Amino acid sequence: MIYFNCDYNEGAHEKVLRRLIETNMEQTEGYGCDPYCDAAAKIIREKCQAPDAAVHFLVGGTQANAIVITAALRPHQGVVSARTAHVNVHETGAIEASGHKVLVLPAKDGKISATQIDACYQAHVKDDAFEHIVQPKMVYLSQPTELGTLYSLKELEEIAGVCRRNGMYLYIDGARLGYGLAAAENDVTLPDLARLCDVFYIGGTKVGALFGEAVVIPNPVLQQDFRYIMKQRGGMLAKGRLLGVQFLALFEDDLYMEISRYADRLADRIREAFIRKKIPFLVENRTNQLFPILSDEDLKWIGEKYCYSYQERMDDSHSAVRFCTSWATSEEAVERLLGDIDRL
Questions:
Q1: Are residues 203 and 148 in the same domain?
Q2: Same domain flag for 22 and 101
């Protein structure tokens, strides 16, 4: 069985593992107060052109989302997201468990718009009973989205403008950020994110690291006491240098972008194969996630060789499923899949 169901089946890139082994017996301070975390944070600030940003390293995406949102919001405030957003559908109520409501909006191809966000805020402040309703204070986006689509720079600038006019925070979940930055259609850079966002994170778990996410906080208001919340929520790793070492390996020689481009290139080959067979997609994108719509008969046959993830039922005999490539996907595995797609 060849796994195309997600982009975190394997361990870590060999260069990341090599750095972990090379530094294994060194003695450093704990809890992220070590030279490796400092060096990794410095490189990330340089890449983001954000010298005053705070950078903190956490273990996983759900942990990052829960801690960032908890740190930013007061008890009566909620976070606005797409209905398909990870915080709404794939985190077992982690945000609600922290006492903050997820305020969902209808999504188009996984995205929400500045107009929707502004309407949500205006509906709240113009309601006579506004003090009885959860206050929308943060906007949560994913780049790429859960459907592999991307926000353009224009869309992000419009959303950031709405957030600033209405006193809302903009937070971007970058679990797969590398695959978005490397995509052919992308026009957003790390400096753009640092300029437009109050907080965002650079995903490592899905992009070459054994585990880890780098939370970048340009907004000084949200920097205050963030490590207290990290500790309280179980996010302050005692052996924090393990996170710093990994991000140092990913960013010092541009490995992060190199392996992201590789994954996107393989996804493009698979996408082209489905297109040649005139197989439609749930959404159009150029990142590492593909969502072909296949018949039950084809899915049964291809599922004997390849593991994919189910997305949604389309009609009585067709379903949209997800195929993912990653930094670790082999050319050989893709060649085998391409041959079988051609036989559909």
A1: yes
A2: yes
Label each residue of the chain as H, E or C.
CEECCCCCCCCCCHHHHHHHHHCCCCCCCCCCCCHHHHHHHHHHHHHHCCCCCEEEEECCHHHHHHHHHHHHCCCCEEEEEECCCHHHHCCCCHHHHCCCCEEEECCECCECCHHHHHHHHHHHHCCCCHHHCCEEEEEEEECCCCCCCCCCHHHHHHHHHHHHHCCCEEEEECCCHHHHHCCCCCCCCHHHHHHHCCEEEEECCCCCCCCCEEEEECCHHHHCCHHHHHHHCCCCCCCCHHHHHHHHHHHCCCHHHHHHHHHHHHHHHHHHHHHHCCCCECCCCCCCEECEEEEHHHHHHHCCCEECEEEEECCCCEEEEEEECCCCCCHHHHHHHHHHHHCC
Q: What is the mean pLDDT of residues 64-77?
A: 98
What pLDDT, on the 0 to 100 scale, is given for residue 311? 96
> Of 187, 222, 253, which one is at a domain's C-terminal end?
253
pLDDT in tens, 190-243: 999 999 999 999 999 999 999 999 999 999 999 999 999 999 999 999 999 999
Residue span of the structural domain in which 298 resides = 2-7+256-342
CA gap 110, 296 in Å, rounded: 25
The answer to whether residues 198 and 275 belong to one domain is: no
